[in-house]
Amino acid sequence: MAEIVPRWEWRTFGERFGAAEATFAAREPERVQESDELYLLSTGGGDTVKVRDDLMDVKHLEHVNEDGLEQWLPVMKAAFPLTAADVEAVLAALRAESPPLARPAYTLAELLDEVVRPSSDMLAVEVHKHRRRYTLGGCMTELTDVRTSRGSTRTIAVEAEDPAGVIAMVRQLGLATRPNTSFPRGLKELVLFGAGRYAVLDVGTNSVKFHVAERSAGGEWRTLVDRSEVTRLGEGLDEGGELQPAPMERTIEAICGMAEEAREQGAVAIAAVGTAGLRIASNAGAFVEAVRERCGIAIEVIPGEEEARLAYLAATSGLGLTGGSLVVFDTGGGSSQFTFGHGGHVDERFSVDVGAVRFTERFGLDGVVSDDTLAEARAAVAGDLGRLDGRPVPDALVALGGAVTNLAAVKHSLATYDPDVVQGTVLDRAEVDRQIELYRSRSADERRTIVGLQPKRAEVILAGALVVRTVMDKLGAESLTVSDRGLRHGLLVERFG
After folding, report:
1. Cys bridge to 313: 166, 268, 436, 490, which one at CB 3.0-4.6 A?
2. Superfamily of chain region 196-301
3. Three-state secondary structure along the chain?
4. Whether domain 314-496 has CATH 3.40.50.2300
5. pTM more than 0.90
């Protein structure tokens, strides 16, 4: 019998695959195949266990390399009826507790009715696959439509005996920022079987936001970790168009710490996105590669429109807004995103290069500011927000991001940040004006004594407040509602919900 050489595999799930779609569309598949398979899943994880062509097919996870590639080894292909010993081997592969076996051999129907279905820790899922297979760069590459009674999805797989070739092809397809997810785990996520823990990172111009949550079998989310660290990645970016060494190092250290914490929390996948600072920095690629090498995290630099869409998703789901015209805006260190819609429907979204870090550096807003300088900064912010001019007053205005959540925390004098108090806070014009004067008249060190203000945000809070107040003016809103749920929450629902 020929020796079986296990392949290194990479796989991702989703509805849209970006540039990879064009790669497949430009080629005729070498093979198109329809198949019906039955997967056995367990809450304990385990190996790949399925029934195909009337055979019990089991693959064992042999290794996971430094790039996260998985090497699977076929360990069983057995015809039915299965011996009791084979059934015990299947249960061991699923890491499922073995009940007393009453039969010396089991048909498929007997296995399902007497062993699998009586257990709350196991589930049998019928799967129909429409597979299109290609050979790209020496790798077997497959685009598959997956359909079950509980939902549908799509998946791309890349396999080869050479792991370097697999990684090279994944990068060539533009998929390197996506998590590597085995088929059983992706299937469990699709049918919402068992709890799973996931982490997301939002790498912004001023701060890195970190969120770890557990999704129950019913689809509800429970927050385990939710925090941010101000690293000022964009410090000095406006002057030369490049990320500077010290801010890069601070941010990489923060990301590595968060990645380690996510893994300690048991997160099975981590999604990370970069926003305005990484969109405009000429050396963003070097930063992303350094993070990948040192932290094992792939950062996807997303367009401003996508950032706006995810923020809108987070705000509408978190506040339960379902009717009337709605504007959601997220102002950060390097840019602000705006999404206009009605309930769950998005009408328009865009991003503008209006952020707290740039205006802080341009007008020296990190300390005591004169009336003339404040007026000049206001005028500059208003000029850069010209896309808001002439728009109708929305029924609701929702704001999110570090600036507005700090304004809410200061309003409530929160010595310890409480997301449940901040969520849904209403800020009117008078409160924002009060805080602008509070920050304008103080140095950064004096601002740090203000209860509720995150100390590391003391330098940029005045610029952030000016952006918030100008948006209210432009849209004719007397007040706004604060959403503590931001881009990271939208990303969590989008990637892992």
Report:
1. 490
2. ATPase, nucleotide binding domain (3.30.420.40)
3. CCCCCCEEEEEEEECCCCHHHHHHHCCCCCEEEEEEEEEEEECCCCCEEEEECCEEEEEEEEEECCCCCEEEEEEEEEECCEEHHHHHHHHHHHCCCCCCCCCCEECHHHHHHHHHCCCCCEEEEEEEEEEEEEEECCEEEEEEEEEECCEEEEEEEEEECCHHHHHHHHHHCCCCCCCCCCHHHHHHHHHCCCCEEEEEEEECCCEEEEEEEEECCCCCEEEEEEEEEECCCCCCHHHHCCCCHHHHHHHHHHHHHHHHHHHHCCCCEEEEEECHHHHHCCCHHHHHHHHHHHHCCCEEECCHHHHHHHHHHHHHHHHCCCCCEEEEEEECCCCEEEEEEECCEEEEEEEECCCHHHHHHHHCCCCCCCHHHHHHHHHHHHHHCHHHCCCCCCCEEEEECHHHHHHHHHHCCCCCCCHHHHCCCEEEHHHHHHHHHHHHCCCHHHHCCCCCCCHHHCCCHHHHHHHHHHHHHHHCCCEEEEECCCHHHHHHHHHHC
4. no
5. no
